[in-house]
Amino acid sequence: KELLKLATLLYSAMRAEKKSKAGGEVDDDHDHHPPATLLTSIKEARSLAGEITDKGARLYDLLGQEAGVRKARIKALAFLDAISSNLDSTSDHKYIEKSIRELVANVGENTTALRKQCNDLEADEKALTAKIKKKQADLERGEKRLKSLQTVRPAFMDEYEKLERDLQEQYEIYMEKFRNLDYLEHELDQYNKAEREKLEVEEKRHDKISKDLMKEEMAVFLNGGQDGIDDVEVNQMMHNMGG
């Protein structure tokens, strides 16, 4: 049957091609056919070409399945030949009747299973609908409760606001004292630094005075009240003593 369809399609395409050629010759000779006829012929040719391609691909797929369905087809044809040649035989009729009854029974079982599944789904749907309604009711009650709580002022809010103001005041006092303490610590550091610098200067001056006195005493001791020893010699002697 598939080959017959393909042959019919090819024959239709050949006839359409001949008609288009004949129409072209008439147009060349007499030039009285309108362009719309040519456009229609071209569209039909393209449509037929696409249909031929699709049918060819389908035929190729069917021929590829030939090896698998050949045995079943031969068996079915043999069975039909046996029935047609022996119409009075009851065994074949019983076999067909049995097969049909089995198919009907299978369909009935599938229908029963589908009905049961539909009933279960309906029951689940009803249960879920009831749960959704319950949750929606709970949600509405919760929203109403929230709105009522938002509009009511708690009893402890006055005390809370008072404590919050006190805390803000204490924080400002703390920050002021902290800034004062930081300033005083800075001033104390500057004072200690200045005192250390003064002490260092005083120590240097005291050392210089001590060295000068030692020089004078050493000069008096060495000279014995006589001239002849200069300051360079005194410094050298003091350096040796210090070493």
From TrEMBL:
UniProt record, GO biological process: cilium assembly
Keyword Glycoprotein attached: no
Chief site of localization: other
Intracellular or extracellular location(s): Cell projection, Cilium
Position of the signal peptide: none
One CC-aspect GO term: cilium
Coiled coil (residue ranges): 118-212
Superkingdom as given in the UniProt entry: Eukaryota
Keywords from the UniProt entry: Cell projection, Cilium, Cilium biogenesis/degradation, Coiled coil
Family affiliation: Belongs to the CLUAP1 family.
PANTHER family according to UniProt: CLUSTERIN ASSOCIATED PROTEIN 1, CLUSTERIN-ASSOCIATED PROTEIN 1
Protein name, per record: Clusterin-associated protein 1
Organism of provenance: Fibrocapsa japonica
